[in-house]
Specification:
2 copies of one chain form a homodimer. By secondary structure, chain A is an alpha+beta fold. Among the domains of chain A are: about 120 residues, Uridine Diphospho-n-acetylenolpyruvylglucosamine Reductase, domain 3; about 180 residues, FAD-linked oxidases, C-terminal domain (Vanillyl-alcohol Oxidase, Chain A, domain 3, 3-Layer(aba) Sandwich). Helices cover about 35% and strands about 20% of the residues of chain A. In chain A, strand 5 and strand 6 form a beta hairpin. At the A-B interface, strand 9, helix 8, strand 11, helix 9 and helix 11 of A face strand 9, helix 8, strand 11, helix 9 and helix 11 of B. Chains A, B: Its cofactor is FAD. Chains A, B: It comes from Kocuria flava.
Chain lengths: ~450, ~450
């Protein structure tokens, strides 16, 4: 249904659009994302959209002439969901980056898709509010991309993923018609939940051009605990103990030894000298300190050393250490970032299994995890000129997915399927679900022009 | 697409099923719900399902013979979403009421659809957990019905609606095939979010036969404030002030004067002597008392009197007063329960407008509201033998929806569209959204046998 047609000239209806370009440097830029995967070919062209009308005209022409379109935000995706190939046109939305409105009383923001996650958070902070989904890439990723992948981050075990923050969407459908779905109210159940269907659909059902997002009151207080462990299994067990103690930390991040080593190398810190795994926990709200004590008591039996970071600067440095994990690894080579999820009490089995996979395949795997929701990012690090989609890295990736599934988990918690995880998609969702998803795709995009070959 | 076919004999493939009956008393019971609407005809038959296989056989036969099927839970719906007419077969799921598993470490419950909301909460409480969606009808409504309507309740401004609690669903599709969607993990984004699509689809896309639901840690403390006001506008303004103060109450319920009068009459309380409107606020968690003080300071300037209910029994009595609103009104006549939503800062305009509609149409309207999410239940009370779907009640209902929409709101926050709100559906969602929803319906239920004429 969604195979790429052979190369052919770009129809004038598209090539004549004001934002259209074939500039080779631009095409080189937009053919890939941060997944580490570079497609063998370059796209046929690029439309730099600045207005909803630009998107409408692009899709109307693409629909009429059956030209595949790859919507693109900030290009920070980790599953090659925005990678583009020969015959495809990239629809670049990153210049549609205005915050149209923040309503501090209603606690909502109305934004264009190219707004950066961190910029939205900075604007919300001026009103004592925050936007909950916070991918590690907050300073470079766009809200539109967050919606396309139903992105998560550190705070979602407590505050929910992107889907929970999306109240309404304006979406340009495959044929160029403009759909508004959802409501400006916290609750609304009139008809099917199309905004939830579009959220996480990786640009295959429509192009989001405006979103009404829920903001939340900034917590009045935050408390921070850090702990170092003999091994990663102990850290995972401590994280599970925090959940079993019925605390609801806003942050519960696990970092393994190899990743700590990379962070130390890149930032001059000395985490790995304190242990082979690190856990960062934050509680927030009116009872932040009381809840921190519950977390502390749960962690202590498993840890080598524990630090209560009362000083905000010290706490911020610990958060930054965690945030620097991916850039630190990227300084060492090409990184393929996994995104598996497991039930929270299977975390220790998963991290131990990842060690085994690393040994057996000879591939280096460094792991960080959003431990409070069982979402792990095992990162495969290879030399810069080594491919990640074949040989031992691909073998390790497949073993990783199989292990997550055998523990009752999923192959992607928050990054999406994109192009890179297609091989394992049906094994996870099953033939019938695949068929139903394709029927929905067919109902909304009958010519299959939207991001072909991705997601479903 | 979904018109009811003329009456004809029930095919043997259905009539021969073990749970099938034509018992007139049973058919009388299942032709209506708690909406106050009684269809003019009775359904052709009833299948009392006890197993997934019963549901599979029913739908397989119905699909083959093009017989419309009305899925039914506990029958407590308020939008005639489960009402059944001539030519339709009711698929009654209320006997599929087992809690299959509670995992206290993972904080999930696996349940059949007929489990009552309160029974699930009681089972979760044994492990120090709770199930967040809590419709006022908790003791009589089923979890399957909650999923069908994406039900809310008092606690969802803080803890989310049913959609946020549904991690995975097993659904029997229109043709009898069994689909599993979602994952046993807190986060998962593999493919389209079908579980979110099924949640709130009012039995028109499939029949939920099993659900994996997220439980949450029971709060370690709860604090309660009650306040009485000169008029309902002041109470609404106080509720908006609580939100503007950036508190996140777990409960923020508004009750107007006429409803207080009915509660007093039914329960012997004396709320109305204290004011013409009542606001009940609860905060919970480790900082419950500190947050209560923020709520208190926001409410005080608007209130005639305020009560901090430190005694748990006193707090519980106040919650019970709110919960008794609907039964108290039902003691006075036939009640049609509205479900409009407005942006939270428009609450005062909405309640004032409802007073005006009541005066102008001569219809009695009593209002309660989940004020923290702007969801109001204006209840039209008529004599027991008066219809609610024509004359002044229908006029008032239409005016109510128009008012909510003019304030940027919705016609249904948590009860669904059902049969009763069909007239206003397209005005709210728009022609294009209606078309997209019908295409999805067509993709999943090509013969239109599932709950025809409801929701979309």
């Amino acid at each position: 249904m969604t195979t790429t047609p052979p190369a052919r000239p770009v129809p004038e209806a598209l090539a004549g659009l004001p934002g259209f370009t074939r500039d080779p440097a631009e095409l080189e830029r937009v053919r890939t994302d941060r997944s580490g995967y570079v497609p063998p070919t370059r796209p046929a062209g690029l439309v730099r959209a600045r207005t909803v009308e630009d998107v409408v005209r692009t899709l109307r022409a693409a629909h009429e002439h059956r030209v595949p379109v790859v919507p693109r935000g900030a290009g920070t995706g980790l599953a090659a969901g925005a990678s583009a190939r020969e015959g495809e046109i990239v629809l670049d939305l990153h210049r549609m980056n205005r915050i149209l409105r923040i309503d501090p009383v209603e606690q909502i923001a109305v934004v264009e898709p190219g707004v950066l996650n961190a910029d939205l958070n900075a604007a919300a902070a001026e009103h004592g509010l925050f936007y909950a989904p916070d991918p590690a890439s907050t300073s470079i990723c766009s809200v539109g991309g967050n919606i396309a992948t139903n992105a998560g981050g550190m705070r979602c075990a407590k505050y929910g993923v992107t889907r929970e923050a999306v109240l309404a969407l304006t979406v340009v459908l495959a044929d160029g018609r403009v759909l508004t779905t959802g409501a400006g109210t916290v609750k609304a159940v009139t008809g099917y939940d199309l905004k939830a269907l579009f959220t996480g659909s990786e640009g295959t059902l429509g192009v989001v051009v405006e979103a009404v997002l829920r903001l939340r009151p900034a917590p009045v207080a935050t408390a921070t605990v850090a702990a170092w462990f003999r091994d990663v299994g102990s850290a995972a067990a401590a994280a599970s103990a925090v959940i079993a103690a019925r605390a609801t930390p806003s942050v519960l991040e696990l970092v393994d030894g190899p990743t700590l080593g990379a962070i130390d190398l890149a930032t001059g810190s000395a985490h790995r000298s304190r242990g082979e795994a690190f856990l960062l926990a934050q509680t927030d709200g009116f009872g932040a300190e009381l809840e921190r004590d519950v977390v502390l008591r749960a962690i202590e039996p498993f840890a080598e050393s524990v630090l209560v970071a009362d000083d905000p600067a010290e706490a911020e440095a610990l958060v930054q250490a965690r945030r620097s994990a991916i850039p630190s690894l990227e300084a060492l080579g090409r990184v393929s970032i996994g995104d598996v999820g497991v039930p929270r009490h299977r975390l220790a089995e998963m991290v131990t299994g990842l060690r085994r996979i690393a040994e057996e395949t000879g591939v280096e795997i460094c792991t960080v995890a959003h431990a409070a929701d069982g979402n792990l990012h095992p990162m495969i690090v290879v030399d810069r000129d080594e491919p990640i989609t074949e040989g031992p890295p691909k073998l390790a990736l497949g073993r990783m997915f199989e292990l997550a599934r055998s523990l009752g988990g999923t192959l992607t918690g928050e990054h999406g399927v994109g192009l890179l995880k297609q091989d394992w998609f049906t094994a996870e969702v099953g033939e019938l679900s695949r068929e139903v998803q394709h029927r929905i795709k067919q109902a909304l995009d009958p010519h299959g022009i939207l991001n072909p070959g991705k997601a479903v």
